[in-house]
Records
---
Amino acid sequence: MASLKVNFAGVEFQNPITTASGTFGSGMEYGEFVDLSKLGAVTTKGVADHPWPGNPTPRVAEVKGGMLNAIGLQNPGIETFIERDLPFLHEKHAKIIVNVCGHSEEEYLNVVRRLATEDVDLLEINISCPNVKEGGISFGTNPKGVEEITKAIKKEAVQPVVMKLSPNVTSITEIAKAAEAGGADGVSLINTITGMKIDIERQSFVLANKTGGMSGPAVHPVAVRMVYEVANAISLPIIGMGGVETAEDAIEMLLAGATMVSVGTANFYNPYATMEVVDGLENYLNRKNISDVNDIIGLVK
Amino acid sequence: MSKEFEMAKVVSQKELQPGIFSMWLSCHAAKSAVPGQFLNVYTKNKEKRLPRPISICEINGEKGELRLVYRVTKEGSGTEEFSKYETGEEVRILGPLGNGFPVEDFKDKKVILMGGGIGIPPMLGIADCVGKNATAVLGYRDKNTFLTEDFEQAGTTLCLASDDGSIGVHGNVIDAIKENKVEGDVIFACGPTPMLRGIKAYAKENGITCYISLEERMACGIGACLGCVCQSKDKDHHSKVHNKRVCKDGPVFLAEEVEL
């Protein structure tokens, strides 16, 4: 039996599989399909310092090999999250990665400070959401900005800090280096790729927001390439994500250099996807006679 | 673990009118379904991965069968794939999902069913429960009607409208309800948003309790993605804003509860 245990920024996880923020809520809906305690961790939907209503509908559209979304980070705010969602996840014995969002540096810091006394394992800072006008991606697209916000968050954070990076940049390695220079404990990538769909009968945008973040299997090769590049540019551990729907996809991410892998959009069309990936990863390692999953991380040079 | 995928078996498939199909499925979901709920139906074509949410038309709990009546949206669509399924073929479904209409609460009352276009099928499931106590006000594009015989079989009084005037009242379901002076204690409605807006206003003017079933683009269908929200009068339970989830908190809402 192969060992699936990984250590990410000093935190032990029983396996490297987690969920991509925004595709799994806080686990409540998926707890009806899968045993949340069998995941490496649950990564929650982004949480801000107050409730956000998100964008007008339509917010989602199917596209070839994936989908576009422009939810706009609707969330109940940190107080409800702490009162309702964290106890639920603790009761399910899940490890917890909290995704943090904000419109301004102060809003991010409010959430990070509020979580300082809570039992969560990692903080993932969303500086890359393409669907909110202020905050989100505007922090994540220039290296100087990334370094500054990372520094500011590291000053206040009790848990290890993972900066979530946008693929909508000229050079993702420059952004990753900036996060490293700012003192991040890890990075996660990729957030969605900005896309657009037009309804040719109505001759208008399908999404009310006009643009949306593209996710799903079609973005997977882009994500693998970026994980590989970042893994070779910095020395921080990586949570790799983007179009992972099977164990094979997750293994590619690990070989490219990710220490953990998130299953995202696949949850929407297969609520069992996370468990299938964990099982498939174990089978792969056994078949290859590899005793430790760490032996394949970054193996492909 | 309380929810599961299942492979439903196609019992029959029939084209009722050009592009409108009726498919009976044999499935466990039939045991617990109520009118107004929906199924996630998954395509076999892996290019289209998101489930298609399709409202349940009729329920036969004893035989364990559900009827879906759906429109093929366009060439190459997921619904086109469904329309080609033959008897005995298996299809992946998840459900029943959503809340459904509170039919039981109005069993001995006079019920008005209002359906427009592809919003008509879920009304039939209610007619099966309340039969004679219901009047169905149905709006079609033209004389190519569907399911009218099924409503009659359920014992429901029919009142039709068509956009082009080729059958029933020339106009929409509001024109039809006024012209026929249909009265009742409750309205159950499903159809396009402008129609539901009109029905909401009509129900308010006349002091009739009104439940409407909403449609919105969905991804997961189980309340996780927050794609299909509608604006609600009260703060929603999930995000504490004013965004109820059509798939999980609905699709059926008390009309006054939502902004259209």
Note: The first strand of chain A starts at residue 6 and ends at 8.
---
Amino acid sequence: MSEKNNTTIQEKVAQLHELVAWFDGDDFQLEEAFDRFKEAEKLAETIESDLDTMKNEITILKKRFDTE
Amino acid sequence: MEKNENVFSVSDYVAITNQTLEYAYPNVFIEGEVASFKVNQGKYVFFDLKDAGASVGCFMTVWQLRMPLEDGMKVVISATPKLTPWGKFSLTIKTIQPKGEGTIKKTFELLKAKLETEGLFSPERKRQLPELPTYVGIISSTQAAGYADFVKIAERWGGVRFDVAHVQVQGAVAADQVIAAIKYFNTLETLPEVLVIIRGGGSADDLAVFNDEMLVREVAASRIPTLVGIGHEVDTTLAELAADVRAATPSNAAQILLPDKEELRRSVHYSLQSILPRIERSVGEQKTLVHRSLTTAYEAIERRHDEYVHELANDRRLLAELNPHKVLERGYAMVRGEVGVGESISIETRLNYIEAEVKNVREK
């Protein structure tokens, strides 16, 4: 569950970086730029939303570590 | 001798004395200075524990000895008092810890040199921590300030499962508890991605737990990559040196382990913002191209227009030269009609139209 979320955020951030890199690459075309920008904007919103909902899960183990 | 008075055999007396001692002092803590330290047959450790007024013989096995020991060192032992079958009083040691800054420093340096020689701290052994761990094992005291600091800073990220092994982080049993916790995490079916061992600041005595030889070896042997942050920035323990990654403090451990949501937010925002100038630049370039094309077209039209105007002017000039009236203006006359004697002809001059009759025609 949390693993999926984090992996997804990592993937999304990687996707965003890839999208942003396209704008500086040789394949850049103004005709496509608007759609790609909208896609990047949407991705950024999703990442932000994921960041808002991410919470840590802390479990104090019941096991005792006494050795005697 | 009175009738009811108990009479023991020597062996019984020693045995009952030991029972009494064990009952009265099952685990006694004593601070003193080491003297006459020696190891027999590579297995048995003997020394005297003394102060200004007394001295007591101590016994333990080398496996219990978890710190380098030398005469003159100040230590705290936990032990059980015992009367040997030879009538000698001695202390059977359970744990031994260095006491006082001088001894702690000395044992630290001796053990550090020993483990360094074995390669326990060498950089080649260090493993990288995962970039974004999702399952982390923590070994700490949940009541310690260092743990609270770690948890607070860890909130800068999310989605992480932390399993916390609550152990004592100071005192005689602390090292064994930490070792047991490391072993526990390392034998789980699903291993945590990182093992974090943390403890806040304290005195040299408190932090000495993390210089325990067995604990340091356990950290070095962990299958799970380790991140160890003990005490303040200026404190260095051997457990930290044996760890894959050393944190200056528990807070720093959380900073090393997890990225900051806000930083990622800023990075995402910056990424988006960085696109806009690229688009604007491209629009600007396109505009320039269009403008340049228009200018070229306009200049071509203008050039062609000028050429036409010039050609027209030439034609007009030529046409003007050919205008018959120009010839008349120069004094010539135009004659129309049949050229024959008696025929009527019309003559046009600059000013007049003249009707005339041909009186004579001869060849030139």
Note: Residues 325-357 of chain B form one domain.
